[in-house]
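Lab channel / #folding
Pinned by the channel admin:
"Please post every new chain as: sequence first, then the C-alpha cells as a reply. Keep commentary short and put observations after the output so the thread stays searchable."

First post following the new format, from NK:
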Amino acid sequence: MPGPEDNAGAAANDWNDLTAHLHGHRIVFQLNGATTVELPNDEKGRTEGVLALQVHGRMETDVWFKDLEVLVPEAKTKKK
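Reply from TO:
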C-alpha cells in the first residue's frame, strides 16, 4: 500500500479523486481508487466533530476543491 509521501497516483495539474471512508474508528483514504491510508482501529480518533480540509506543504501552492459530498448512513432501526 502506498504511503502518504507517495504521489505516484496523483495527477499533476488535473483533478484527483479523494475518498475518505469513516466508519466508527475505522478510517480508509483512497486517492484515485488506490488505498493510501488504512487505520482499522483508530481508538484515539474522534467519531464526531468538525470536518476540515487542509494542505501541508513546504512550497506555495493553490488547492481547489469541487464536488464535495458528505454521505451519512441512515440510522439502523431495531427489528422486533
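NK: Residues 38 and 44 are 15 Å apart (CA to CA).
TO: also worth noting, Residues 1-67 form one domain.
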